[in-house]
Known about the structure:
It is a single chain. The protein is α/β, with parallel strands linked by helices. It has a 7-stranded parallel sheet, with helices on both faces. It is about 40% helix and about 15% strand. The chain has 7 helices and 7 strands; from the N terminus they run βαββαβαβαβαααβ. The longest helix is centred in the middle third of the chain and has 26 residues. It binds NADP nicotinamide-adenine-dinucleotide phosphate. NADP nicotinamide-adenine-dinucleotide phosphate (NAP) binds next to helix 1 and helix 5.
Amino acid sequence: MDAQPTKLAYVTGASRGIGEALVQQLLAAGYRVIGLSRTTKIDHPNFTFVQLDLSNLEAVKSFTFDETAPHVLLVNNAGMLGEVGSVGAITDSTFERVMRVNTIAPQILMNQFIKTFNKIAESGHILNISSGAGKNAIDGWAAYCASKAALDLFSETVRLEFNLHQTENWFIHSIAPGVVDTEMQSEIRNSDPSEFKSLDRFIALKTENQLASPTAVAEKLFSVIQEPKQFESTILSVRDF
Ligand code: NAP
């Protein structure tokens, strides 16, 4: 009988884009992976799909980290851009939904993950997929920018608390993945030009082949997962390594 994998990863947004590419790398490296999203297309003996809509916070609060292993990883990768448009012109519900998916659901999952594993796992790592838009304002994206900025500072606070209370084997990083060739980028290129003055820049990135592939970005994320101690700063950008 095969031995149980000693490394277990919970990954949100595993169905496509960066999340799917990262799950494929984790599975190839012998991880057991639990993927949380609304849909899935991964079929692998070490992969389990849990259907979860992160905009439904009651469902997120009901999720339990039932499986365990000596080394546990949580990747908060799922994210949404939301309605693109200037503040004053967009619907109020955009703020709520973007914050629920990009910020509050990851916060609840981090809380439960730490609560579940901090006494029983040999090591724990949280990897939040942030964005350059959490550091630099982009017109039409106020909800998204604010949601990622909040994720960054939340991560820094958790890091401070790890330093104060946890063992040295707990790590957290909030990583901007660069501009990546996924559905999110095609959604961006389909924005209404009258609501998004930066549209030409994003169209040019695609036509000039400047977008990174999800696989290349997943390789960089995986290098942080493999050697978390090497990445001292909590806030990272894949462009820096
Ligand atoms: P993507 O291709 O659009 O994939 C988004 C993923 O999030 C999907 O797996 C989707 O799964 C999941 N998701 C979205 N809403 C969800 C919900 N309500 N509940 C559960 N899962 C949900 O996007 P991506 O480009 O790979 O983005 C991954 C992360 O990178 C995001 O956090 C994004 O903000 C960040 N990022 C991307 C770029 C870029 O250039 N692509 C740049 C900076 C940051 P289901 O639809 O199956 O639920």
